[in-house]
Amino acid sequence: MRAARLQHRTGILWIAALVHRLAGLALAIFLPLHFLTLGLAIDGEARLNSFLRWTDAPLVKLSEAALVFLLLVHMLGGLRLLVVENLEWHDGQKQLATLAAAVSAVLAFILLVRAL
Amino acid sequence: MSLRLYIWQRLTAALMAPLVLVHVAVIFYASRKGLSAADILGRTRGSIVWASFYGAFVAAVAIHASIGLRNVLIEWSPVGERPAAMFSIAFGLLLIVLGLRAVAAVVLP
Question: What is the predicted pLDDT for the residue at B34?
Answer without folding.
Answer: 63
